[in-house]
From TrEMBL:
<dbReference type="GO" id="GO:0035459">
    <property type="term" value="P:vesicle cargo loading"/>
</dbReference>
<keyword id="KW-0175">Coiled coil</keyword>
<keyword id="KW-0325">Glycoprotein</keyword>
<dbReference type="GO" id="GO:0005789">
    <property type="term" value="C:endoplasmic reticulum membrane"/>
</dbReference>
<keyword id="KW-0256">Endoplasmic reticulum</keyword>
<feature type="domain" description="SH3">
    <location>
        <begin position="1"/>
        <end position="63"/>
    </location>
</feature>
<keyword id="KW-0732">Signal</keyword>
<dbReference type="GO" id="GO:0006888">
    <property type="term" value="P:endoplasmic reticulum to Golgi vesicle-mediated transport"/>
</dbReference>
<protein>
    <submittedName>
        <fullName>MIA2 protein</fullName>
    </submittedName>
</protein>
<dbReference type="Pfam" id="PF07653">
    <property type="entry name" value="SH3_2"/>
</dbReference>
<dbReference type="GO" id="GO:0009306">
    <property type="term" value="P:protein secretion"/>
</dbReference>
<dbReference type="InterPro" id="IPR001452">
    <property type="entry name" value="SH3_domain"/>
</dbReference>
<dbReference type="InterPro" id="IPR051500">
    <property type="entry name" value="cTAGE_MIA/OTOR"/>
</dbReference>
<keyword id="KW-0728">SH3 domain</keyword>
<dbReference type="InterPro" id="IPR036028">
    <property type="entry name" value="SH3-like_dom_sf"/>
</dbReference>
<dbReference type="GO" id="GO:0070971">
    <property type="term" value="C:endoplasmic reticulum exit site"/>
</dbReference>
């Protein structure tokens, strides 16, 4: 379930396939806000695309869930299938 709807305030091109790419003005549904060392990253979707993006590239348009959902992250959450092999930060 989406937490909020946001609008991109800048164009964003992520470093790899785990990230959501978008252009200024596009709407994104936010599903989680990561905690700990990745607290600047949110996860969300735009159409069929889903991925991470920096929270400072968007502005909140509508809050859909009042409660913040904290997601604890594991290394495996950041795996990306790239050129037939897994890469991890």
């Amino acid at each position: 379930e989406a937490m909020s709807r946001v609008q991109a305030t800048t164009d964003y091109l992520g470093p790899d396939c785990r990230y959501l790419n978008f252009k200024t003005g596009e709407e994104i549904m936010v599903y989680s806000k990561l905690s700990r060392e990745n607290e600047n990253l949110w996860t969300g979707s735009k159409g069929k695309d889903f991925g991470y993006f920096p929270r400072d590239t968007v502005k909140v348009e509508e809050v859909l869930i009042g409660e913040e959902v904290e997601v604890l992250t594991k290394e495996t959450d950041f795996l990306c299938l790239h050129e037939d092999k897994y890469t991890s930060e």
